[in-house]
Amino acid sequence: MLETKSTCPYCGVGCGIIIESEAGAITGVRGDPEHPANFGRLCSKGSTLHLTAAPVVLQTRRLLQPMLRAERTAPMKASSWDAVNQHVADKLAAVIGEHGPDSVGFYISGQLLTEDYHAFNKLARALVGTNNIDSNSRLCMSSAVVGYKQSLGVDAPPACYEDLDHADCVFISGANPAWAHPILFRRLEAAKASRPAMKVIVVDPRRTESAEFADLHLQILPGTDVALCLGLLHACIWDGLLAQPFIDAHTTGFAELKALARDMTPAQAARICGIKEVELLQAARWFAQSPATLSLYCQGLNQSSSGTAKNTALINLHLATGQIGRPGAGPFSLTGQPNAMGGREVGGMATLLPGHRDPNDAAHRAEIAALWGVDALPSRPGKTAVELFEAAARGEVKVLWIACTNPAQSLPDQALVRRALERCELVILQECFAGTATAAYADVILPAATWGEKDGSVTNSERRISRVRAAIAPPGEARSDWQIVRDVARLLEPVLRPGRASLFDFERSEALWLEHREATRGRDLDISGLSYALLDRDGPQQWPFPEGALKGRARLYEDGRFAAPDGRARFIAKPYQACAEQVDARFPLGLTTSRMRDQWHGMSRSGVVSRLFGHSGAPVLRMNPQDMPRRGLKDGDLVRVRSRRGEITLLLLGDADVGAAQADLAMHWGQEFVSGRGGQGQPLLGANALTQPAFCPDSKQ
Ligand code: SF4
């Protein structure tokens, strides 16, 4: 038996795994006891990873060879890499020639490795010449990115997992880590068991497993987080709980925020949030008076039409109470996907450039152009996720290259997304699993390697870079994502850059990583002191890790100096705004979407493991039982659920953990898991038939 150290491909906790393989097949997975993210533990998803590589899965669910259909109406046929690569290159060249570079869009994924991200970014920006490259991380992280930048100066989570061992108060907001980040939550449970005086506050419209664990559950109404934070700040001001010396020495903008908070009394905030004032006051005291307060937050803050305001409102609280830059203290965004952080570092999103640079900054564009050996990078703004699909629906984006994600299930307002995919002249789908909802709209399918078959790196929530290693060769004709990109790019270069040296002279993943590393030199995330060899020898490392450093930095801003040019953090004064869509007489229930304990995203991987359905086996709409009798509803009824955009039919269950006048639906289910068949013309069945595409004006999330 061979053993190969790698990283779990599911969530942003980034647990180390040891892959067991025999005769070219994966036979088992166990936790890596030396990995500092998990010390050998794995959750239900991680510990069943090997079952997603079982022979029956490889035969029935994996994409094993390139596929092509010459016409939209023609059936998809097996093809060769040479033929599909040439077809893609020819079509890209023709569309770019006729309609310009911005008629092409790339929609990629936080599941990709850093090296894959880099290859896509270079293809889009340096060769095609468009900033139309965005990632499903837009739906996951971009409000955290912009929140950090506005408040602290750069996109860098200041805290680390070890801070759970030092925190005296843990404020969990818009997150259910008991299910979504389980191994991190085990660490919180252990910390609380060893120090029972630690206070845990959970802010969530639902009574989740995390809320059950908490000392205080603030069951706010959906979307009212900014009002809550302003009310907490008001209480801190009124009760003399501010860290005034810290505010004076290390921040700017407090007067404006104080004026805003003055108008949000605790009583008013409690009324808006639907909680008791006494609970809010208790939370304010624990947050401010604990020796060290750590916040953990995720989609409840990020995935919102006021996502950035929610992030900055929470960071404001940390700054005002001096709860930052010390062991156990700080705002700490949890990443959903395994490499959403790596995508941010590489700049594989429309609003970012490599090394935490800005595509709107001419000097930043020039720096990357020089590093990559091109004359210039495009300056036209790129389209973010929802914008990209809206542009495709209007006929402006004609080619979509989608990698490692399933937008026909996972983007909001599915009717619009599917119109967009139908209208495109060419949809390229780079995937490892067959039968996703998006596959039905693809003209070209490029079979990709997945975990256990590819080599590279990822960065987890605490800025820790871990190696991903191949234990076996990819099945069939599947290839690593960066290789797929490179091979098409090499065919396109003679057309778009005739007579110039290749930009894609990569034979190994390390060559891509080294190019990315150079883009970080001298920046806040400098990893010029790292190498594959060092990571292989010493294990995963946190950034920054500049040349000459002996180790990375566990937490940031310990010297009180922030990353803005003046060294000061900024208070951001943004008022509370209600959800973009309100309930009314015709649509009287608010819908929240949520995660299940044992499933991942659209289930293309976790959905092949039967034991992961033991916890929850079918899509169910949950409602507060008090709301059911007056509508003549009871447990087990089939109900028609309608929003302003779509309609689905589901089983109903009463659940007192869901707030009054609210309903909850897990996000994972899509048509192939509900109906057993996917494809064009099939009815919409997942949560995103109902959801709306409004986004935060700052983060576009
Ligand atoms: Fe994988 Fe996340 Fe579970 Fe760790 S907590 S084993 S990274 S899914």
UniProtKB/TrEMBL annotation:
Coiled coil: none
Sequence ranges assigned to domain 4Fe-4S Mo/W bis-MGD-type in this UniProt record: 1-57
The protein's required cofactors: [4Fe-4S] cluster; Mo-bis(molybdopterin guanine dinucleotide)
UniProt key word Membrane: no
Keyword Lipoprotein set for record: no
Domain of life from the UniProt record: Bacteria
UniProtKB keywords: 4Fe-4S, Iron, Iron-sulfur, Metal-binding, Molybdenum, Nitrate assimilation, Oxidoreductase
Stated family: Belongs to the prokaryotic molybdopterin-containing oxidoreductase family. NasA/NapA/NarB subfamily.
Protein name, per record: Molybdopterin-dependent oxidoreductase
Taxonomic source organism: Roseateles albus
